[in-house]
Amino acid sequence: MLRAIAVRAGLSRSGQLVAPSVCRAMSSTAGDSNSLVLTEEVGSKGVITLNRPKALNAINLEMVRLIYDAMKQWESTKSVVIVKSVGDKAFCAGGDVRAITETSNVELARKFFSTEYRLNALIGSYRPTYIAFIDGITMGGGVGLSVHGKYRIATERTMFAMPETAIGLFPDVGGGYFLPRLEGKLGLYLGLTGFRLKGRDVHKAGVATHYVESKNLAALEQQLLATTSGAEVESVLDRFSEKRDAGAEFVLAKQLQQINECFSAPTVEAIFQQLERDGSEWAQNTLKLLHKMSPTSMVVTQKQLELGGKMDLKTCLKMEYRLAVHHAIDSDFKEGVRALLIDRDQKPRWNPATLAEVDPARIEQFFGPLPDGDELQFEEEGPKASL
Prior knowledge:
41% helix; four-stranded mixed beta sheet; globular; disordered N terminus; alpha/beta
């Protein structure tokens, strides 16, 4: 589940070596091979590798800081930065929210979300060409590490989802920015339902910019590290990638018109009504799915995407920081994590339990100023951020 640290064994990816002609020098930024984040410098290129396969490369505060520090160090010296992961199960399955909810530590929540969102913003405005190999599970924090970069490379093993409404949260890490920019109402559908896109469908949906078979990633990386210009990078990616219309039809192609019609309704309650009127098997299954989600989270998400579609990334992240801190203070977030990730009884007790009971005034409070006025700031806006 998104942002959860799922304890499953990851497998080392074999054959991921660059040809001997390319010299790979280990950077001192990340320390030894036991570090949770490995960094390498290959001439004018940098490689960042998430190294937590047993936790599906889920990111914690230490990892976010290591990635941020490496990217800042390379910002003016590298032409290309590749981000990938160890193991063939996951690029990054999310972030560590259990620590926040189990301790009810609002300050920990502030530190984690502010640091993560500053990294998301850095990726979105990064001068070097940023390329993420989203090979495997890519959810939550993993989406934030990839989707704002220039290039996102999906494989047949990629599984993308933003299922935060199932844990009483909302699609953060800039979800309010990129989801409304997908075709039609696809982004809102993905954000409310947590629907999982796999393999080529991640590319067809516009989440990934390219699709490459996982067996070819090592060769792709080798050629990217040998490029000398942005045009050459694009040429290499195009040569390795399938066309977006290749393979089977997009998994949601037959439902896109229904998605656009039903999810264009002005409120979540109205979306439910549209689905009920539709009455098709797809609509009925969608309603069953939505009834499992936190009513408050769905209303927050609908408003978040409506506002975020008109914002730039940094403004959207500031809004999401307000939402995240308010959720850490008082929301369904803790209960959702308990039910789905800790006790795993799959029986969250949402408060309120129905859409009809959701108080519009409380929703407005989620989007309002934080109690102490400690809003998210980026480095260029004031004193240097402490990361």
